[in-house]
Amino acid sequence: MGERVDLTPAAADLLRRLVPAHGPVMFHQSGGCCDGSAPMCYPAGEFRVGEHDVHLGNLAVDGIDPVPVWMSGPQFEYWKHTHLTIDVVPGRGSGFSLEAPEGVRFLVRSRLFSDEESAALNG
Fold first, then answer.
1. DSSP 3-state of 110
2. Which of 63-67, 74-78, 89-93, 107-111 has the lowest mean pLDDT?
3. How far apart are CA 110 and CA 107, in angstroms?
4. Which of 23, 30, 101, 116 pairs as cysteine with 36 (C-beta 3.0–4.6 A)?
5. Would the pTM count as exceeding 0.70?
6. What's the distance, CA 4 to chain centroid?
């Protein structure tokens, strides 16, 4: 409890393959349509986080630096009652996200927080 974001073992494995080629990474989810609604993986610091973006947490992945996950403020207002899990599936995602050349794409799976989780996180 107390975490807003996590990842699947498959997503962790992909991150461990991406980091040696690109250095430390980060995620940002803008909430736009199409590819913008998917979590985008960038080299850390290459995406400028805005003052209204919300830091959801850092993903702990064995063998690499913690991976910060950010979401746009307006999108967070819709998703603040959900726990997000970053996963990876076959298919082509955005050309801007680091996994695109791998033939896979990151996506977010969600579940509603329990009343207790929501109270602890959202005050």
1. strand
2. 89-93
3. 10
4. 30
5. yes
6. 10
